[in-house]
Amino acid sequence: MTIQIPTINDVLAAETVIREHLSPAPLIRSWALEKVLDLPAGRRVWLKDYGWTPVGSFKLLGALNWVANNADRIGDRPIAAHSSGNFASGISFAGMKYGKRVIIVMPDSAPQVKFDLTRSFGAEIRTYNILRDHETGERDKLTREIAETEGAVQASPYDDPYVIAGNGVGGLEIVSELQRQDRKISTFVCPVSGGGLMAGHALSIAHGFPGAKIVGVEPALAADFCLSLDAGERQRIDRPKSICDGLLSYDVGEYNWPILKKHVSTAVSVPDSETQQAMKWIYEKHGLRTEPSGAIAVAALLTGKVRLDGDGDIVAVVSGRNVDEAQFREWIA
Q: What pTM does this model have?
């Protein structure tokens, strides 16, 4: 079966859906990061902060576009999805907006804030043990079981054309704002897990700034995309490990891989200790409390893992901020 890979036209179509519900997430200039990176006066660093969405992460973009485009197919049936937490709240919010029942499969170790946020939009949650999932396949079994026994329509948190296109609207926002200011991007830095965030953004950034270098960032012990780039084909890691709970997919998605392979030239990996330092740095310099997955792109910049060639601006994605307060304090201590 030939799969239909989303294009920039799908992202442009998704923008109409997203604008019905959300205003653009802030693009913040980071003078502090410009200083650390010792950039010349003509270059700027920008943080795209998705913590400002109603669900505290970028996941709402793809979720809204998915539900909008599948609403008729869903009808009176429930939506079923697995998620580490951010897509859970995203699809729950979207389900609430479109009057759909949502059932979420989440790891029992997910942050409490993600459980609370997901339930606040009316979703039902069922949990699984993530530590043994590589052996039992419990996550996927439970999600399929809900689809089969309750007639639910399954939504992928990343491996779906509508999800990718919806996420790409955030990239359109970046392009639009920087073009408005007559700026250009030399380097775009973004987390990679299943690839839904990066694939959507890569379509938009490559379209708006064809000369930009697009760099993926992963946790050191969950770097399947780094392995995939080296091998030239998708690689799987059976037991990814990191405090970045949103970046623990086993491999990048089938729909995502062709886009990533085409547009993402480089990927780097970051140990958790450096991500923790970046969380502290962002909090102290910008007053933003980020989850680990949200800070990892900044960590890659702070530690010099990304080459900053060219004379244009640098954009780093802060993907979310859903972290329990006590755990956040422990990580930045």
A: 0.96
- Tell me the DSSP string of 11-56: HHHHHHHHHTT-PPPPEEE-HHHHHHTT--TT--EEEEEGGGSTTS
* 132-141, 165-174, 178-187: segment of lowest average pLDDT: 132-141
Q: What share of the chain is helix, strand, coil (3-state, %, to 5)?
A: 50, 15, 35
Q: How many domains does the chain have?
A: 2
- The whole-angstrom separation of Cα 205 and Cα 227 is 23
Asked if residue 72 lies in contact with residue 233, where contact means CB atoms within 8 angstroms, the answer is no
Co-location of 185 and 72 in the same domain? no
pLDDT in tens, 4-50: 999 999 999 999 999 999 999 999 999 999 999 999 999 999 999 99
pLDDT band at 3 (very low <50, low <70, confident <90, very high): confident
Buried (b) or exposed (e) across 182-206, using 16+ Cβ within 10 A?
eeebbbbbbbbbbbbbbbbbbbbbb
- Residues 6+ away with beta carbon under 8 Å from 9: none
Give the domain range for residue 127.
59-154
Question: Is residue 66 within 8 Å of residue 55, measured between CB atoms?
Answer: no
3-state secondary structure of 113: helix
**DSSP H or E stretch at residue 267:** strand 266-270
Q: Which pair of tokens denotes residue 27?
A: 């693009």
Residue 14 lies in a domain: yes
Of 142-146, 265-269, 316-320, the one with minimum mean pLDDT is 142-146
Q: Do 125 and 226 fall within a single domain? A: no
Instruction: Give the helix/strand (H/E) hosting 103.
Output: strand 102-107
The pLDDT value recorded for residue 74 is 97
In 10 A of CB 279, how many CB atoms? 26
Helix (H, G, I), strand (E, B) or coil at 203: helix
Q: Could you give the percent of the chain with pLDDT greater than 90?
A: 94
